[in-house]
């Protein structure tokens, strides 16, 4: 039953109020998710660019379970060609939960602890008007996949 509750949180936007650990700044404007990533225990990478993107940023949605996450341009195969910035926010926009700029030189690394399972967004940005290409490395606890549960077939059958 606990697994189904976590899955429900990952598929339905949560109405939970979040308090930011960086002063509670509000995102501007509310972001649309450009792509989806799936954190795992070992580093995964995704390449992209902020050049020509709205607000000069690119956003990735991901389903998180409680645990520690790292998003980085500094290790694990991550890199950026510009002065980068990273932030995590709830899927439905709102206050930043964590932000980082200039962790290793001009590159960013963001360590974030998720305390409530649900959908979140990682935002790849740049300082001021800086844009460029990047390889984002990320890792964290793996969220359960619907294919991994025996109950999932029963749930799908209810909707057929």
CATH topology: the name is: Jelly Rolls
Gyration radius (Cα, Å) is: 16 Å
Q: Helix segment count?
A: 2
Number of strands: 10
**What would you call the quaternary organization?**
single chain
The computed structural class is mainly beta
The neighbouring-strand order within the major sheet is 1-3-9-6-7
Q: Biggest sheet, in brief?
A: 5 strands, mixed
Q: What's the structural domain tally?
A: 1
CATH class type: Mainly Beta
Which whole number gives the mean pLDDT? 77
Q: Unreliable runs, pLDDT <50, ≥5 residues?
A: 1-29, 147-152, 154-160
CATH architecture, please?
Sandwich
Structure, described:
- It is a single chain.
- This protein is mostly beta strands and 160 residues long.
- The protein has a single domain (2-147), classed as Jelly Rolls, CATH 2.60.120.
- 11% of the residues lie in helices and 35% in strands.
- The chain contains 2 helices and 10 strands.
- The protein has helices at residues 2-11, 151-158, and strands spanning 35-36, 44-49, 58-64, 67-72, 79-80, 84-90, 98-101, 109-114, 118-126, 133-139.
- The strands form 2 sheets. Strands 1-3-9-6-7 form a 5-stranded mixed sheet. Strands 2, 4, 5, 8 and 10 form a 5-stranded antiparallel sheet that branches.
- Strand 6 (84-90) and strand 7 (98-101) form a beta hairpin.
- The longest helix is centred in the N-terminal third of the chain and has 10 residues, at 2-11.
- The radius of gyration is 16 Å and the shape is globular.
- The model is unreliable at 1-29, 147-152 and 154-160 (pLDDT under 50).
